[in-house]
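call fold target=Ring-cleaving dioxygenase
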Amino acid sequence: MQKTSGIHHISSMVNDAQRNIDFYAGVLGLRLVKKTINFDRPEVYHLYFGNETGEPGTLITFFPWAEQLKGRIGKGQVGVSSYAIPKGSIDFWKSRLEKFEVKFFTFVRFEETHLSFQDPDGLEVELVEQDEGPVNHWNAAGIEPEQAIKGFSGATLISAQPHKTAEMLEDILGLTCIGDQEGFLRFKSESQIVHTIDIKLTPSVRGLMGAGTVHHIAWRAKNEEELLKWRSLLEEKGYHPTQVLDRNYFKSIYFHEAGGILFEIATDPPGFSVDEPVAELGENLMLPSWLESKRAELEETLPPVKVRVLEGEL
């Protein structure tokens, strides 16, 4: 059976691009690895954050648009994006969040302590201590490798049909069910950083798309050959996937699973150094070739943004 090795990226909707960069780069210490545009709406940025090289499994991406209405987290969405942090670093992160006046709380699920908080747009984020996974050496925000976020530890899905979503994770994507606890059904992947996917089994409100909500979650495919096999399987099972789309840094397909959540399957290659050197990732506005002729117009339309060193409250 073909199996995904876990999460490729998670994409969310927010209002303010600079505030988004300040939080994910300035507070959480992720690297802005790509500053590009939403290929479907080029007047909106598409910002990618990850580890020092932007490896799949570390990537959170955003569509910041000031005019979009506030959304509501609920059924048919990813409810929580969870990050892996090194063992023994949770007290560092509590102190760092306090420094930036980010409210948080802790809870235990499946014998793991979760540090839970919201970003400035209301997205739910967690930090979870985890032994697995490579060290992240990106430390532009003054966070040392022994504390730095490694990548995703997983996500929580809020499905309109939890058991149908569970079947998708197990029978199509090849994740393994490892149990249920306190109203959550847990699956895990076989990635280097073990991604755990929790499905919420208790009732939730209907999700409304908008700022402060996750747009989609993407799963990893090794290459385009594997992606095409998944597309054929999804068609066979009646999921109506899109055609293969070229996103410049990966190729992908999209489909809605039975619980209403938008899934994407994305290839690991070619990666983010395809159009700029690793040392310069995220420094310049990168455009696909078919939009390069509109660069001057887009640079005038898009708000100026930069990665800043923060000293205190956002």
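return ok
Residues 7-301 form a domain with the 2,3-Dihydroxybiphenyl 1,2-Dioxygenase; domain 1 fold (CATH 3.10.180.10). The chain has five helices and 16 strands.
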